[in-house]
Design a protein that fits this description.
Blueprint: H1 5-18, E1 24-25, H2 26-35, H3 41-53, E2 57-62, E3 65-70, H4 72-81, H5 87-109, E4 110-116, E5 122-130, E6 133-142, H6 145-170
Antiparallel strand pairs: 1-3, 2-3, 4-5, 5-6
Length: 171
């Protein structure tokens, strides 16, 4: 039985999100699927849009990244149709995660965002997560948007060092 290619792309995305215990960024999903040449950008964008519209995945924008998470409906849908993904594609995905899990997890476990507070100052929110547990959540109030933005930019590269310093000083 032939299947609609768009359905296959959706199932690949669902399978990818099911194989990890953390959200993936949309860029991470795109990078893998486009590098493997399973489809093109427009088809993949349509697949993700339809998955989001059907509430099979959640898309959360955090600063300049879109994080994708599998919903329970998405997990259930995948359980019904995962046999429509070829074993070779599943093997490619599993191998990719085995080889890149640390980097992928690290990329989505550290994030930051800033916003204007009701007091008129800006608040920079800095977070480190491990699975669904927040290991560290710091909010800094600063006078300008440029300072808040700079703090968020620096957090990406310094978070591990800052976390280690805090743990050392407190324990």
């Amino acid at each position: 039985m032939a299947q609609d290619p768009l359905t296959l792309y959706k199932l690949i995305v669902l399978y990818m999100l099911d194989r990890v215990a953390f959200p993936l960024t949309q860029a991470q999903v795109f990078e893998f699927i486009l590098d493997k040449e399973y489809t093109n950008f427009l088809n993949l964008q349509q697949a993700i849009s339809e998955l989001t519209g059907a509430n099979l995945i959640l898309a959360k924008s955090i600063r300049n990244r879109t994080h994708l998470e599998l919903t329970e409906d998405g997990r259930q849908t995948l359980s019904f149709f995962s046999n429509r993904i070829s074993p070779s594609i599943k093997e490619d995905i599993d191998k990719y995660f085995k080889e890149n899990e640390f980097e992928l997890r690290n990329e989505v476990s550290v994030y930051s965002n800033y916003y204007k507070s009701t007091s008129g100052e800006y608040e920079a929110s800095l977070v480190i997560k491990e699975r669904s547990i927040e290991l560290l959540n710091i909010t800094l109030s600063v006078p300008t948007e440029s300072i808040a933005s700079s703090i968020c930019d620096k957090w990406e590269g310094s978070s591990q060092e800052i976390y280690n310093d805090i743990v050392k000083k407190l324990f």
